[in-house]
Amino acid sequence: MRSAATTSSLLCTSHITGLVLAGGRGTRMGGVDKGLQLLHGKPLVQHVLERLAPQVGTLAINANRSQLEYARFGYPVWHDLEEGFPGPLAGLHSGLVHCTTDFLASTPCDSPLIPYDMVARLATALAEAKADAAVALTDGAHGRQRHPVCSLLRRSTQASLQAFLAAGERKMDHWFATLACVEVEFPDERAFCNINTGLELQRLEEEQ
C-alpha cells in the first residue's frame, strides 16, 4: 500500500507539469484558433491558464499555430511531434516528452471553467489506486461523461502512447483503456464544458 509520505509527495505541485492543449484546427469554430477567442475580454486560453497555474508546479501550452501569440502568456509552447494536426493524443505525447516532472496534468484550451481543485483530486485518486492515469468524470444532464483531456498522467506512460500513435491509433478513450486508469467524479458538469462553436462562446458570455 502506498505510504502517506509517498502520497503527500505526489500531491506536491512541484512534481506536476500542467499542459493546456491548444493544438487543434478549430474546425467547428470556422477554423479560427479557439484558444485565442475572447471571453469577457480575455482569450479562452488565459482563463484556463489562470485556473490551472495554482494547481501545478510549471505550465506549458501545446500549440501548432499562433506560437508567438501563445508565447506572450509567458509559458513554453510545445508543438505536436507529428505533422497534420493528429489530435489531442499527439499534444499529450508532446507534453510527456518535454516535461521534466513525474506527472503531467492536461486540460483543453476551450474549457474556461475547469475546477480549481481538479489536479489535487486527480492526484489523490491516482495515488490511492496506484494508477497510471486519472481522468475526470461527470454525471449530469448529459449522462455520465468521461473527460480524458482533463487528466493526470504519469510521465512513464510516454512509451505506451508513442507506440499507440506509431500504430496509427488516435482515439483517446482507446489509449486510456490500455492503462491502469481511475475515474474521478466531479459534481459540476458545467465546469468541464467545451466551447466548440461561436454560438457556444456567445451563450457562455451571456450566462456569466
Automatic annotation (TrEMBL):
The entry's Mg(2+)-binding residues are 110
Entry keywords, A to Z:
Cytoplasm, GTP-binding, Magnesium, Metal-binding, Molybdenum cofactor biosynthesis, Nucleotide-binding, Transferase
List, separated by semicolons, the cofactors it needs: Mg(2+)
Instruction: Return the GO cellular component terms, semicolon-separated.
Output: cytoplasm
Whether GTP-binding counts among this entry's keywords is yes
Give the matching SUPFAM superfamilies.
Answer: Nucleotide-diphospho-sugar transferases
Q: Where is each MobA-like NTP transferase domain found?
A: 18-176
* E.C. number(s) listed in UniProt: 2.7.7.77
Q: Which CDD domains match?
A: MobA
List GO BP terms, alphabetically: bis(molybdopterin guanine dinucleotide)molybdenum biosynthetic process
GO MF terms listed in the record are: GTP binding; metal ion binding; molybdenum cofactor guanylyltransferase activity
Q: Which sites bind GTP?
A: 21-23, 34, 62, 80, 110
**Principal place where this protein is found?**
cytoplasm
Task: Decide whether keyword Phosphoprotein is in the record.
Answer: no
Q: Which InterPro entries match?
A: MobA-like_NTP_Trfase, Molybde_CF_guanTrfase, Nucleotide-diphossugar_trans
Q: Which reaction does it catalyse?
A: Mo-molybdopterin + GTP + H(+) = Mo-molybdopterin guanine dinucleotide + diphosphate
Enzyme superclass (EC): transferase
Where does the record place it? Cytoplasm
What is this protein for, i.e. what is its function?
A: Transfers a GMP moiety from GTP to Mo-molybdopterin (Mo-MPT) cofactor (Moco or molybdenum cofactor) to form Mo-molybdopterin guanine dinucleotide (Mo-MGD) cofactor.
Q: What is known of its domains?
A: The N-terminal domain determines nucleotide recognition and specific binding, while the C-terminal domain determines the specific binding to the target protein.
Quaternary form?
Monomer.
Give the family, as the similarity comment puts it: Belongs to the MobA family.
Protein's name in the database? Molybdenum cofactor guanylyltransferase
Q: What is the lineage of its organism?
A: Bacteria, Pseudomonadati, Pseudomonadota, Betaproteobacteria, Burkholderiales
Which gene is annotated as encoding this protein in its UniProt record?
A: mobA
